[in-house]
Amino acid sequence: GSTYSSKVFRVTFLTLAVSVAVPLLGVTVLLDCPIDPQPISLKEPPLLTGVLEPNTKLRKAERLWENQLVGPESIVNIGDVLFTGTADGKIIKIEDGEIQTIARIGHGPCGGREDEPTCGRPLGMRVGPNNTLFVADAYYGLYEVNPDTGETKPLVSSKTLIEGQKLSFVNDLTVTRDGRKIYFTDSSSKWQRQDYLFLIMEGTDDGLLEYDTVTKEVKVLMVGLRFPNGVQLSPAEDFVLVQETTMARIRRYYVSGLMKGGADMFVENMPGLPDNIRLSSSGGYWVAMAAVRPNPGFSLLDFLSEKPWIKRMIFKLLSQETLTKFVPKYSLVVELSETGSYKRSFHDPNGLTVAYISEAHEHNGHLYLGSFRSPFIGRLDLQHV
């Protein structure tokens, strides 16, 4: 009798399983998918050995102004006064430890993800030659902000059509010393910042642009970049580096000299997804990784890169909020030499002290760590790591 009952059980179980699975599959097929993912070809991530060997150096960072600001993405300084932009649309000044809101490009209410497009989201920030702030707001465009009066002046509005396309996700910028040229990224002409996961997973491409503050002209310098993100002029101002987040690499575009107008690869196949890039005092560059591609280990991004059908299934069934919970909180900052080789790396393997690092800004022997999600600014003493 026992074989009979186990047979009945098996048949019943299989019938049940099929009756659940078939409609589920049907529903999944019928459901709209918000993205149209393209297969992306990534090389196997580099081994985390040598200079990239995991450590816990980022855990030595102290948390400053904890719970007094939210998501300080990019950080600049004028003298010892720090400035940053936060997730609730504010441009903030920190002087002698005191936090003050100096400007707002958008308007309230500011709270959830759905408020972002009207609230604004200041991302990349730079100091111009007259100590004015240049700010890339993801939704509103490029602005100049007077740090004393808080007056905001639009330079390139996201409503302006550039070669027939609107700017949907203005992300980072870098400014020449004379303040004439601003190089900036529009991470997507399709997705806004609130949908950055769609952008990473879809792998659509966009560009690097140049704004001339004298002629007021905007030029497209590079297209076909998958999630162009952080940008940095070289110390000699002969090229601009642009982080291509989805492809885990850095491209170089020449803005002067014999190679002007040409482009090449600066660093390929990085151990993580690069976010912002800033100069280091050694003449190289600090690169903050938004996520890591562990090797040895399992990298979800690499696993999904050539399987658009799995991406479609996932995005039909799960929200972006749910999906962000699957991204491992591994924090990584690397220092590159002027030629793009790795000099050193700072890790926080579980993001215990600082998670989701978007930028590493060096000032006065310290590395200030911006994060698009943390409620503080991290500070690492470079003498003691």
UniProtKB/TrEMBL annotation:
Gene3D superfamilies: TolB, C-terminal domain. One of its GO terms (molecular function) is arylesterase activity. Residues 171-257 form the Strictosidine synthase conserved region domain. The keyword Glycoprotein applies. The keyword Membrane applies. Its main location: membrane. GO terms for cellular component: endomembrane system; membrane. It is found in: Membrane. It comes from the Eukaryota. InterPro entries: 6-blade_b-propeller_TolB-like, Strictosidine_synth_cons-reg. The chain crosses the membrane at residues 12-31. It is a single-pass membrane protein. Keywords: Glycoprotein, Membrane, Transmembrane, Transmembrane helix. Belongs to the strictosidine synthase family. This is Adipocyte plasma membrane-associated protein. It comes from Sterrhoptilus dennistouni.
